[in-house]
TrEMBL record:
Pfam family, one: Aminotran_4
Molecular function GO labels: lyase activity; transaminase activity
Database matches in Gene3D superfamilies: D-amino Acid Aminotransferase, subunit A, domain 2 (3.20.10.10)
Protein name, entry field: Branched-chain amino acid aminotransferase/4-amino-4-deoxychorismate lyase
Keyword Lyase in record: yes
Stretch forming the signal peptide: none
Keyword terms of this UniProt record: Aminotransferase, Lyase, Transferase
InterPro entries: Aminotrans_IV, Aminotransferase-like, BCAT-like_C
ATP-binding in keyword set: no
Amino acid sequence: MSFNLDPGSEQFVPAKNPPAVTPRIIDSFLVDDGRIRSVESHCHRFGRSIYAEFPATRYLLNTGDVESFTVSLLAALATIMPVAGQWFPRLEYYPETDDIRFLLRTAPNQRSHTALWVPETPDPRLKPRIKGWDLDELTALNATARRNGCDDALLVNPAGAAIETAFGALAVIVDGTICAAETGVLESVTWKLTQNLLPTTEACLSPQELIHYPVIVGNALHGWTEVPEILIGSTRHRLPTAPELVRRLNAALSNHAVDIRTF
């Protein structure tokens, strides 16, 4: 089921026709019995991305700025969000028609481990800071990863550093510190929350270096998951794991879930 955000009433109304193109900007989050982790951050990132690329959009002209847009978007979501069951909805922006849509989807099965495949070519994204801009390319990489028996694709920059995955933040645990790239990557809501929980630092390693350390992947759907193996070429490399740390991280993240009806 999908809805369009009416800029006049600032409410979602049922969509009449499916879009003919891929959305240019998106954001997704897990809804568990009406509770969502850092939903304000997801909505703010969505609005900020729209304004950065399409400042003349009728939505932000109507509300004045990204902050007030976020408030009105949260209020609109509160009126249509299910409060029972698990859902993984997606906010979508279509610049061709200047439309914001809300796609209500049931949540896929969640996993606790993420096996990674390393493509032979560098990160293909044109705008990694804008979630959704390179959606078709990332979806294709993820599909290839699955054909190779993995869950996600590892994105490697032209310098050879592994920076994130097609659909998640990437972190490596070195001497008790959680390290992740912060340049040339999406501003991950999951990673931002984690920075407030444990010691973190900016660093990134090559895929060949990663295999010697515990590696974790985080996103809104799965939380943090362990990486048991990385497929480089035709070789599957087994990695050390840190299950207790992942358990602690996910328990701490759950404390940031709020009821959508409070907005």
